[in-house]
């Protein structure tokens, strides 16, 4: 049996917040989950209502009820809530269950100890999965010699963007780069827009130009395969406007600040994992 033979899946979401809602809606649209056999649990009625409206998946208050119904369980809660969720569903877990955690910093060792199961995945997606443009890293642990579970995770998270199978010791770096990275990019877009406003552009126009510029530049990197430095050099003509702007960014240690932000976030992800 290949992983393709497993779809559509019965997927249970333990937590029904924004990330779970985005994943559920995308997977339902892609035909990767069976909405009639899938479930989501959340303690907040308003959160359950939003999830059900967006995905067509029935919601309940009990995590244990979701575990009893579904084969694949997505742990979509804050890291400090993982232990409580595990305690609730552990008595219902069977060999058929595959647990996929998107809780930042919670290691596979911790998940194995908490859930008592050998079929595990740890995934670090990011918030652009809300618009189908996530960048995810994932690691798996399972006893299956055919790596069906690993392929399954790649298929699921590849449906909401790009997903990379990595050794687990690199997932904190993924957290620092793509997990936290959207916030850095939003700050850059805001700053670009502020620069446009300072130069006389109306705020809505400046913000749209800034966001579209970042989107276009990202597409150039992804679709041409060229090094970002080469693309930068192609814009920066001798004695021109772009090289003058680059000089200002270099004067302010722009690149060093970005590198430091990724390192700081990755370090913090490791600290969160140790607290678990």
- What overall form do the CA principal axes indicate? elongated
> Could you tell me how far the N terminus lies from the C terminus, measured between alpha carbons in angstroms?
36 Å
Order of secondary-structure elements: EHEHEHEHEHEEHEHHHHHH
By CATH reckoning, the class of the largest domain would read Alpha Beta
How many domains? The number is 2
Per CATH, the architecture of the largest domain is 3-Layer(aba) Sandwich
Task: Report the major sheet.
Answer: 8 strands, mixed
GO cellular component, one term: cytoplasm
GO molecular function: pyrroline-5-carboxylate reductase activity
Binding site for NADP(+): 14-19, 76-79
Organism: Gemmata obscuriglobus
Describe the structure.
The chain is an alpha/beta fold and 276 residues long. It has two domains: 3-170, Rossmann fold (3-Layer(aba) Sandwich); 179-275, ProC C-terminal domain-like (ProC C-terminal domain-like fold, Orthogonal Bundle), CATH 1.10.3730. It is 53% helix and 13% strand. It has twelve helices and eight strands. The protein has helices spanning 18-29, 45-55, 63-69, 82-89, 108-115, 148-158, 171-179, 181-198, 203-224, 228-235, 241-251, 254-275; strands spanning 11-14, 39-41, 58-60, 72-75, 98-101, 120-124, 134-141, 161-165. The chain has an eight-stranded mixed beta sheet with strand order 3-2-1-4-5-6-7-8, sandwiched between helices. α7 crosses α12.
């Amino acid at each position: 049996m290949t992983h393709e033979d497993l779809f559509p899946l019965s997927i249970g979401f333990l937590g029904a917040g924004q990330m779970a809602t985005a994943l559920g809606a995308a997977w339902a649209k892609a035909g990767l989950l069976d909405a009639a056999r899938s479930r989501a649990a959340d303690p907040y009625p308003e959160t359950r209502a939003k999830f059900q409206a967006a995905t067509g998946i029935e919601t309940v208050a009990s995590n244990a009820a979701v575990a009893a119904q579904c084969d694949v369980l997505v742990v979509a809660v804050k890291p400090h809530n993982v232990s409580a969720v595990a305690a609730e569903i552990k008595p219902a877990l069977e060999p058929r269950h595959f647990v996929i955690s998107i809780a930042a910093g919670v290691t596979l060792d911790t998940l194995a100890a908490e859930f008592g199961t050998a079929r595990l995945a740890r995934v670090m997606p990011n918030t652009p999965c809300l618009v189908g443009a996530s960048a995810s890293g994932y690691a798996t642990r399972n006893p299956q010699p055919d790596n069906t579970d690993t392929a399954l995770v790649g298929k699921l998270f590849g449906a909401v963007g790009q997903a990379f199978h990595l050794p687990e010791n690199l997932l904190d770096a993924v957290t620092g780069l793509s997990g936290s990275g959207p916030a850095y990019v939003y700050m850059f877009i805001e700053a670009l827009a502020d620069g446009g406003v300072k130069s006389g552009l109306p705020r809505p126009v400046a913000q749209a130009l800034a966001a579209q510029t970042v989107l276009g530049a990202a597409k150039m990197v992804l679709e041409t395969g060229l090094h970002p430095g080469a693309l930068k050099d192609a814009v920066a003509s001798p004695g021109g406007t772009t090289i003058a702007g680059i000089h200002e960014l270099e004067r302010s240690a722009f690149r060093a600040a970005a590198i430091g932000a990724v390192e700081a976030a990755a370090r913090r992800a490791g600290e969160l994992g140790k607290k678990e």
